[in-house]
Amino acid sequence: xxxxxxxxxxxxxxxxxxxxxxxxxxxxxxxxxxxxxxxxxxxxxxxxxxxxxxxxxxxxxxxxxxxxxxxxxxxxxxxxxxxxxxxxxxxxxxxxxxxxxxx
Length: 103
Description:
By secondary structure, the protein is an all-alpha fold. It folds into two domains: about 1-45, no CATH class; about 60-100. It is built from five helices and no strands. The chain has helices at about 5-10, 20, 30-45, 60-80, 85-100. It is flat, with a radius of gyration of 25 Å. It starts with a helix and ends with a helix.
């Protein structure tokens, strides 16, 4: 606190010195209407003005994209089928413990 007392004025405000220097940043995707428009455009496969949506896989190797989609579609199901119920339960317990901060 000592080094910022002169900049802010009093010691109680020195705890929030970063508000003086740091600009707030607008979060991405908070506009309800922009999100709604994006959802509709993705659902219909084109922009509202009739132009096509840009391809997210453009510039990528088509064979690699196909292989990735193939592996992703069966990876989780194959792993789940391979695990015993006890092992799946243990994995779920570990995940919940990490998620909720219990060790």
